[in-house]
Amino acid sequence: MESKLGSANSSVVWKAKSRWTQEPFAIRKIYDGLRNTIDRTICLKEIYILSELNHPNIISLTQIFRPLTGSDVYLVYEFMEADLYAVSKAQILEDIHKVYILYQLLKALKYMHSAGIVHNNLKPSNVLVNSECIIKVVDFVSVRFVGEVREVDTGMCYYVEPRWYIPPEVLLGCTFVTREMDIWSLGCIFGEMLLGKRLFPGSSTMNQLERIFEITGLPSREDVLAVPSPYAETLIENLMVPEKRSLKKELIGCSPETRKLLKRFLVFNPAKRILIDEALVHPYVSQFLDVKELTTRSPLKSPFDTSKMSSLQYGYELFDTFKKNCDNRKRSVDWPKIHPLLPPKKQEMVEEFYLILHVFHQVPKDLSIFLIQKTLTYLIYY
Question: Where is the Protein kinase domain (predicted)?
Answer without folding.
Answer: 1-285
